[in-house]
Amino acid sequence: MTERLVFRVDAVDGQARAGEVVTRRGAFATPAFMPVGTLGTVKTASPGEVEATGARIILANTYHLFLRPGTATLDAVGGLHRFMRWSGPILTDSGGYQFFSLSRLAKFAEEGVTFRSHLDGTAHLFTPERVIEVQRSIGSDIMMVLDQCPALPAERRTLEEAVDRSTRWAARSLAVRADGDGAMFAIAQGGTDVSLRLRHVEQLSELGFDGYAIGGLAVGEAPEEMYATLDAVAPALPATRPRYLMGVGRPEDIVEAIARGVDMFDCVMPTRNARNGGVFTRRGRLNMRGARLARDERPIDEGCRCYTCMTHSRAYVHHLIRAGEVYGIRLTTLHNLTYYQDVVRGAREAVLEGRFDAWRRAQHAGWEAGESS
Amino acid sequence: MTERLVFRVDAVDGQARAGEVVTRRGAFATPAFMPVGTLGTVKTASPGEVEATGARIILANTYHLFLRPGTATLDAVGGLHRFMRWSGPILTDSGGYQFFSLSRLAKFAEEGVTFRSHLDGTAHLFTPERVIEVQRSIGSDIMMVLDQCPALPAERRTLEEAVDRSTRWAARSLAVRADGDGAMFAIAQGGTDVSLRLRHVEQLSELGFDGYAIGGLAVGEAPEEMYATLDAVAPALPATRPRYLMGVGRPEDIVEAIARGVDMFDCVMPTRNARNGGVFTRRGRLNMRGARLARDERPIDEGCRCYTCMTHSRAYVHHLIRAGEVYGIRLTTLHNLTYYQDVVRGAREAVLEGRFDAWRRAQHAGWEAGESS
Predict the structure, then answer these.
(1) What is the number of CB-based contacts under 8 A between chain A and chain B?
(2) For residue B226, which of B242, B211, B244, B245 has the smallest C-alpha distance?
(3) Does one domain contain both B133 and B185?
(4) Contact: B315, A41; criterion CB under 8 Å
């Protein structure tokens, strides 16, 4: 039988790793950033444009696709890849995070999560098994198990119960995996309580997954708390499997997580911020609404080779964003997605060449220096 | 001195004409449809995508660009072509239509129009001369003169006064034209009163413009009234100059206007309807929100070669439009713009081959037949 997922580490520099993940629908280099395509579209961008940014894997959302277009449609049209015309790998999150962020609509029990649709209020039950079935309809190449992510701050007892239940749910997920399925990643929880995190990692490692994610971070804690948690947790995850930090984050968070041994990332920041005119550059962030950009004929980022920076001036993007024009948010989105890919590719090259720490310091220096003008 | 605009008629079939307009920034075949790029962007589309639909000239809006980004910025960045990266011809409307559609904000006098910005309420004066200056800052290749378009129904006396004033304004516009300027088109008004229309056409023809537009149609009258007006007015416009029907319309209106001798068109319908999920096809219109499209794997229009139809299914576009995804309105916009270009190109080829009437009947038959499924 073909392996569902092969992971090869090409080089290690400190804790940082450069590698490659091979899925049934093609390979991607690590560290990897996955653009978020919640509803089967990376907001504003075509599949070809997403690929042109350098992305080789995207993330889609089990909860949202279950509600729209629904599994019956996904089954009828042959799965999400064919539906959206993306032939590369797709990772799907399990819905656990949505039940955390939409928690007033969700009730947790041992069987699973009962929730109401945020669209029409209809009631549904997601069990660990059902979540795998939905991801099967999507055609996910990397399925995430359903987990329970309690809101912080929480009592240690609450966190413990969530961890133990998430382990039982992970085991139930593994038990229903079928031959044709994609790979399956488990999600380690435990808040910022390192001993609990390590206990969860140990439980999940014993079950044996294709990869391991760290969930429940970047949910409001200070960056230093997140980094301290990663210091302890990332190296504890099996070294032979990809390590995925869910929902993180700013470019600096990604660089710091790579430094601590993380291989995979996703975040809505590059696409969500773009829609408000926020762009990320080699010299820090820029708000395209700023009046001083009105006649600035430079590209958003002089060091960038994306379509936006090769074609249009800051002045024009500023005008479009201020006028609420869709083409403006296309341009900021393409730039941000390209920049995030440039960050992870830069990290990979630095690790391969054994100069990760110098590269990392250069990134921080650029962001802190800002623009001379 | 180079002519500002050369117009060549290649063939005539009945009243329908096939020709070419050469501007200082390149040529376009007629009949021509100009996508509307009000604020210096054809909504949702990149300049390259607009060109790929077949469009060779776009329309921009003097009133809107005067307010945003303003002439100081346009002057600083070297005009609209450079600002938006569109190297082909741009026609700019004069603002007359905006003062009609935003009439509660505008006051007409002999000197010009005093109006308040729909954005921030600031007061401005547009004289015929000032409107030419603004179009000069834009870098317009075909400038439209300021005209007065009264709301219908109106007393004959009101219409007459508007016509006579529009003629005086047209003469004032011509008087301030400078050597480096683009071409200048006048706009014939007169509502559906044919005698008044003909009087206006005669007055404007005597002044001598590079082209002539018919304004003040498709403002609520029945299609048959518009066609009857065109029957009388279009042939009265100088045959050696391009004839432009402003703001029209549905594909059937464009075909009927071509049949009556019109050469140029613009309309927001393909882009505006697209944003609501409305698409135009060889088999009539389709609303992409319709539930019966949820699993329809056909392209929007089987006869279409646009990116949307070559790439994505109705089911996927339906999903995106229902979910409010920007990529969905990009797809419907690209399709509609391509379809409008296909209509005018089809008309041109039919005229060149002397089979316009058969082609025209075939278009109507297709729209009326609808879909077999």
Answers:
(1) 96
(2) B245
(3) yes
(4) no
Residues facing B143 on adjacent strands? B92, B184
Same structural domain, A166 and A237: yes
| A22 & A125 share domain | yes
Do residues A17 and A44 touch, judged by C-beta distance below 8 A? no
As a whole number of angstroms, the distance between CA A297 and CA A291 comes to 13
Report yes or no on A273 lying in a domain: no
B266 noted as active-site residue: yes
Query: CA–CA separation, A361 vs B181, rounded Å?
Result: 54
Burial of A368 (0-12, 13-18, 19+ CB in 10 A): exposed
Give CA–CA dist B255/B344, Å, rounded: 8
Mean pLDDT of A198-213: 98
Residue B372: what pLDDT?
Answer: 59
Radius of gyration of chain B (CA): 20
Q: Of A267, A300, A322, at which residue does a domain stop?
A: A267
Domain check: are B178 and B260 in the same one?
Answer: yes
Q: Label the pairing between strands A243-245 and A211-214.
A: parallel
3-class secondary structure per residue, B215-228: CCCCCCCCHHHHHH
Model pLDDT, residue B1: 46
CB atoms A68 and B329 under 8 Å: no
Cβ contacts (< 8 Å) between B329 and chain A: which residues?
326
> What are the pLDDT digits (tens) for B263-299?
999 999 999 999 999 999 999 999 999 999 999 999 9
> Are the beta carbons of B113 and B181 closer than 8 angstroms?
no
Q: Across the interface, do A77 and B295 touch by the CB < 8 Å criterion?
A: yes
Residue predicted with more confidence, A371 or A251: A251
Residue A28 lies in a domain: yes
- Please choose, from the candidates A200, A203, A198, A261, the residue with its C-alpha nearest in 3D space to the C-alpha of residue A19: A261
Nearest CA in chain A to B295: A73
Which positions in chain B touch A311 (Cβ < 8 Å)? 46, 85
| A289 within some domain | yes
**Interchain CB distance below 8 Å, B319 and A83:** yes
> Which of chain A's residues have a Cβ under 8 Å away from the Cβ of B316?
40, 77, 83-85
Residue A290 CA: distances (Å) to CA of A278, B120, B210, B212: 10, 18, 41, 42
Report yes or no on A272 lying in a domain. Answer: no
**CB-based contact (8 Å) between B187 and chain A?**
no
Tell me: do B121 and B189 sit in the same domain.
Answer: yes
Tens digits of per-residue pLDDT, B187-200? 999 988 999 999 99
Residues of chain A contacting B40 with CB distance shorter than 8 Å: 316, 319-320
**Structural domain tally of chain A?**
2
Question: What gap in Å lies between CA B179 and CA B22, rounded to an integer?
Answer: 17
Each residue's pLDDT tens digit, A35-46: 999 999 999 999
What confidence tens digit (pLDDT) does each residue in B126-172 have? 999 999 999 999 999 999 999 998 877 788 999 999 999 999 999 99
The CA-based angle A226-A282-A276, given to 5 degrees, is: 75
Number of H helices and E strands in chain B, helices first, is: 15, 16
- What ipTM does the predicted assembly reach? 0.97
Enumerate the active-site residues of A.
93, 266
Q: Which range marks the domain in which residue B92 is found?
A: 5-267
Average pLDDT, rounded, for chain A = 95
User: Do B260 and B315 lie in a common domain?
Assistant: no
d(Cα A367, Cα A285) in Å, to the nearest integer? 8
Cβ separation A315–B77 shorter than 8 A? yes
If asked whether residues B48 and B190 sit together in one domain, one would say yes
Q: What is the CATH number of the domain that holds B134?
A: 3.20.20.105
Last residue in a domain, options A267, A302, A333: A267
Contacts of B86 (CB under 8 A, 6+ apart): B37, B47, B50, B58, B80
Given an 8 Å threshold on Cβ–Cβ distance, is A39 in contact with B73?
no
Please check whether residues B11 and B90 belong to one and the same domain: yes
